[in-house]
Amino acid sequence: MNIVPTMRTRPLILNVDDDAANRSVKSRSLLMGDMEVIEGEDGTSALALIAERQPVLVLLGVNPPDVGGLEVCRRIKAEWPDIVVIQIAATSTSAAEKIVGLESGADCYLTAPVDPLELIAVTRAMLRLRQAEGLAREASERYRMIVESAVDCAIFTCGLDGSVTSWNTGAQAVLGYRAEEIVGEPSARIFMTEDIAADVPDNEMRAAHQGLSVRSERWHRRRDGTRFWSSGRMVALRDRRGTVAGYLKILCDRTVEKDARDALEALKQELEHRVAERTRDLAAANEHLRAEIVEREKAGEQIRQRQKMEALGQLTGGIAHDFNNLLTAILGGLEVTRRRIEDPRGLRLIDSSISAAQRGAKLIAQLLAFARKQNLRVEYLSLNTLVYEMRELIEQSVGAAVRLEYNLAADVWPVLADANQVRTAMLNLVVNARDAMPDGGVLRIATENTCVAVPEADLAAGEYAALSVRDDGIGMPPEVLERLFEPFFTTKDVGKGTGLGLAHVYGFVRQSGGGVRVHSVVGEGTTITILLPRASGTDVETAAPIDNPR
User: Residue 380 maps to which CATH number?
Assistant: First the structure.
């Protein structure tokens, strides 16, 4: 029986006490701890409720009126050993009586009256302990099943001296030894005589002891003296302190595969010999043709290298430009700090500058590895909080010619996303909006809740939290909008951008299950909105709203 509740299920607790008032107090405490409670007034009713409802934990008085508490505890542990039993005794109960209670099977002993918070804490602690025990048993059973199911491979362990300590079914099938014949014997007996003379068994253990995973392909010897070709691995087994306590060896019989490889190699050599005999007359012509192919390959490689270097140069220049945007913000923050070093805000500006540098380094790494999938560190986030945290960085990034306005919805839903990726996307949108207003203007950052009723091209129906960045700059014509998110597409001059910024934003948002909306009119400005799915689940609390930054 699995006694540990899931994250979405309250644990069922049986509260047994013949005193109705005491029973009620304990039940209220457990309910306050978000647990489901059923009650019993004596031992007989308790046993009946256990059989019917299967609670995960029983609070049991020592002296029920009908059946003694110790006897009830013994019966519970005999029939339902996974149920946790906490005995609650009167203040006058002696230490000897408590020892008897624990010896009868109780998992914990409390003395009445019990503080409600203590009762909740002890109950939760006992449930966590039982959960850990259950997981350990499951892991041990899974390990046993895996090892015993591997009937095609020999899996065994040995001690530091090389003697066998365990032997699976596959080892018996492959090597011929029964467990009782080999356990305690030197594992070296399965090696060939020449390998033993060359100290191969000890060398493998020494290498494994140093932390290496020792791979080997060699002949090994079965119980009946026949040999087989094996591929294997040996690793060290460590205890909880990290100390090497023994070794694990895995061997698979690869004799059939080796025979097939040897036969194939022999056939290959024979075919090569025949081909060589039949092509002697064409040797001169082939040599001339080979020389031409080599020259053409050299010329092609030179062209490809030039193209690669040109593309790499443009990409590096664009990356330097993007990184410079972050450094500008950092340097601006440091400059303000010099003038206001005694102002407490100076410390926050220093922190913002350090964060900007770290995010810049991560941005560069992502751009250089853009063709690969990103590994997202997903967490529950408040978009308002992220905007608030980046306020000073945004102000330094856009400069004095751009006026910032914020319109953050107080009840914006939390989202499930990678915080660093959201920050990077926000900074990309802000910098692009700034560049779209070369003469300055107004940049508006807003958050809101959005419900999509009908699926769109790249957006499923559902509830989303939206973050939008709007500028009143030059806007974009339709032909630019069509290619806006294509990697390496950019309208900026060479060296001023890679064209990866918006492509990165789009890829991250789509990978997070959201979408991007763009509205732009030439001469009026552009609004880009990223929509991220609303986080849901009973273990999620809506992020506290924050005030719009001024």
Answer: 3.30.565.10
